[in-house]
Design a protein that fits this description.
Blueprint lengths: L1 H18 L4 H5 L12 E2 L5 E2 L9 E5 L5 H8 L2 H11 L3 E6 L11 H11 L5 E4 L4 H6 L3 E2 L2 E4 L5 E5 L18 H10 L14 E2 L8
Parallel strand pairs: 3-4, 4-5
Antiparallel strand pairs: 1-2, 3-7, 6-9, 7-8
Length: 212
Amino acid sequence: NFSYGVIMLRIALVLLAVLGFANPVLAAAPQIGEQAPAFAVQDINGKRISPAEFNHKTIVLEWNNPECPFVKKFYGAGKMQELQKKAVADGVVWLTINSSALGKQGAISPEEAMKINKERGWAGTAYILDPHGNIGRMYGAKTTPHMFIINKNGNLVYAGAIDSKNSANPADIPDATNYVTAALNDLKAEKNIATPSTQAYGCSIKYGEEQP
C-alpha cells in the first residue's frame, strides 16, 4: 500500500531526527561518566596535543569564538583568563578550541589567534583550531563558550555552561554561580561533582559541512 509506505517513511524520519542521527553534533555527544573522546591535533604553535598524553591530569575544554559577545563577556572582564591561570597553576590542562569553519564568524588563522590571545592575556595550555569541526562534533559542542571537564582517569565529568547566568553582560558575572570553578574545586577536594551537567549558552558554533 503506497500510503502506508509513505506514512512509515515519515515515521522513520521523525525517529531519526529525535534520536539525533540527523544532527552530527547531537549524535556524537558523550555522556557524563563515559571515557572522553580521543583526538590528536596540532595547536596554533604546531605542538601535538592529545588528551591521552596528559597522564593523570584534569583537562578543561573551552569552546571559543573570539567574535562572540558571550566570549567577549568573559575575556573583556578578564574572568576567563583568571579561571585559566588558577586552573593551570593547580596542574590542570586547559585546551581552548575554536571550531568555526573557514569563512564563518570566528574563523581565524594561527597567526591571528596568537595576536588575539596576546591582546586578551589568554592563559590556557594550548589553543586549537578545529575548522572542520571534528573535535566539536566529537564532543557535541554547541555554543561558545561550551565547557567540558575530563578527570584524571580520562572520564567526562562536566559538560555545559560556564556559569548560571545566560547573559552577554559582564555585570552579571559576579552574581552567577561559576560551574567550572565549582567542578574543579570538587575534583581537587576528591568529591563528586555537585553539578555535572548544565545547559550551555552562548553563540551557536559556526560549523561547516561535516568532513568524512
